[in-house]
Amino acid sequence: MNVTELPIHDWLPIVFLGLMGLSALIYVVLDGFDLGVGLLSPLSKSESDKNLMIGSIGPFWDANETWLVLAVGILLVAFPLAHGAILGALYLPTMFMLVGLTLRGVAFEFRAKGPAHQKQLWNRAFFAGSLLATVSQGYMLGKYVIGLQTGLYAVLFASLVAVCLTASYGLVGACWLIAKTENALQKQAVEWARKLLIGTAMGMLALSVATPWVSPRVFDAWFSFPNIIGLAPIPLVSVALVIGLHVILKSLPNADDKYRWAPFAMTVALFILAFSGLAYSFFPYVVPEQYTVWDAAAARESLTIILAGTLVTLPMIVAYSVFAYKVFSGKATPLTY
Amino acid sequence: MDALLLARIQFAANISFHILFPTITIALGWVLLYFRLQSNRTGDAGWMQAYRFWVKVFALSFGLGVVSGITMSFQFGTNWPGFMEKVGNIAGPLLGYEVLTAFFLEAGFLGIMLFGATRVSTRVHTLATFLVAFGTTLSAFWILVLNSWMHTPVGFEMRDGVAFATDWMAIIFNPSMPYRLVHTLIASGLTVAFLLAGISALRWLWNDKSLGIRKSMRTGVYLGAALIPVQIIVGDMHGLNTLEHQPAKVAAMEANWETGPNVPLVLFALPDEETRQNNFEIAIPDGASWILKHSADGVVPGLNDYVSDDGAILHPPVAPVFFGFRIMVGIGILMLLVSWKVAYTLYKKGEPSRWEAYVLVGTTFSGWVATLAGWYVTEIGRQPWIVTGIVDTASAASTHPVPILGLSLATYLTIYVALLAAYIGTLWHLAKTAANSDEAKELDAGQFKGAVARALS
Question: Going by C-beta distance under 8 Å and a sequence separation of 6 or more, which residues neighbour residue B277?
């Protein structure tokens, strides 16, 4: 590295790590709830309930999935070495995830527009696709967390994470439905959320316990003094949120539909905390124990030009995404053209 | 089969499947905006009828485009690691700008465009329709900038085998970009023109003579008739541009083996790369020299110039490029004949004859075939390079084990075939449902009463 490389250039990879993390987090929350609704869809009591459930996510799913494209795009563009290492090691789970996303994406369209006798088929594809995508994402997350190891323990751990993530997506999906639906369906969504909260809490606990043992570096990062004091709020607030969710779900739905957004907001907060915990554990690695952000970063010139575009477009993207959500605020209705 | 071949087949399958849907949504977005604006302007119910039918086709096509596009965004990295390694500094920002400026825009406003008509004002709904159309076109712009740069790379320097950008304006406006962009956008327009005309003709044959169907058919036929001559001229210019920058591709398109003057235009032949000559050739003397150099003794490049001294072949495989080009041009001529003939009838009589309607139904997907054929000509024509002169395809492919590549290829192929069948089946179903709808029947009933009255009088 020579003198002409200003210090700011060394910040660039970190900025991109931040952007990638932000995209991934937004993706997990947004596609999390619509994948979650897909996971819950077979539990609906009637076809009209199912239409409402799918109607509640219909205007958003395209845009939600674009955050995945952005996150993977940043990984590819900003950290090409890491992209190769991660997706190369996860080639098959990636393929299953893509197949899942494809099935559920097209099922939205085909179930609504195809012949009536095919509707059941596409309903099943919608559920199966949501499940396949969710499980694959969980499995990939698990593999990533333990540094892309192979072997029986790695597979078991990744499978555990897959189950936990399925519960978490189901939870955030159920919380979305609590906010967006009424009457019997809303009541049912509260029931689902209560059960899935248990699965989510156990999953997060398992992940929190397992991650430090996988790597001595992560263990030190968390349990050395004084880090442990600064980090204490992450697990403490998480526990408080789980208890809070448990309490508030007991009181829902109430007569004037107050606090209908509270479970969703609290679940999102839980996601953010879990994400922060993972991010803290791995920084500055972009592939755990293999590449740091600086090892894996692309040419500075290219990063600069993408950053310029990102700074201009990202606020606009956020603005019109918020606008789109506002247009479809209020209780969900079946979709009509 | 080796890993390279599997990787190429998989990517070709994915990109071929994907391109079918953007080819529809790019131009259909603008057609929908036209329907919407006409409805705002005239208040004629037919325009909104047309809008409401075609917006469903748009949604369906968009959904398939999104899911296959997500798959592709992963495959750049998983299947072609060498590509990103060597030219990622240029491909990366271009793909990044596509996501940031185009993907979010179209996906963000799609919901409002599809389901928001009753929730927002006419003005906002029209704006949303515009932004979706604009987003799809912008997406085409960025991806064609990248694709054109792979054909005619400029504005970079190589350091230790890796490309670094030196001039972004030169990269974006690289020599083949303007031609490829215009040629592809018009191809999208033609695909949609014949889709509009074909499905409208199908409904017409099912006795749906509603206002919406008349307007859709008219829009399709007139759009096709207007675009096809422009496309022929633009295609010719694109070909001359290719001659300048990628002569080996043109040599393959013409199946011309030896460089020289008075090269004939080969109408049909079976090119044989083993013996390096054409079998069963039917040709017009001096034709290729005339088309490419505008004189009988114009010198046209030949394939044998692209064989190195050690026998390595540096030109593309001849037969697929040669036949792909002929299929594309053949469909172009068919489009010209069909659209002009039916446009004349519509202009004179206001409705197509029965056999003309059948012909329109037959050419519903002609744009798809021509687009794919043209796409194969240009992409196979770039071989053996993935980026002309910089990265060869073989060194860019991934080294995944053959069984894994085979499994993923088989999975994707199965899904694509099933989805394509479901897509066409659903178009058919949508058309059938619309033809049997109240809107379509109202007018029918009116005509029926008229016919009864005439019969009784």
Answer: B257, B271
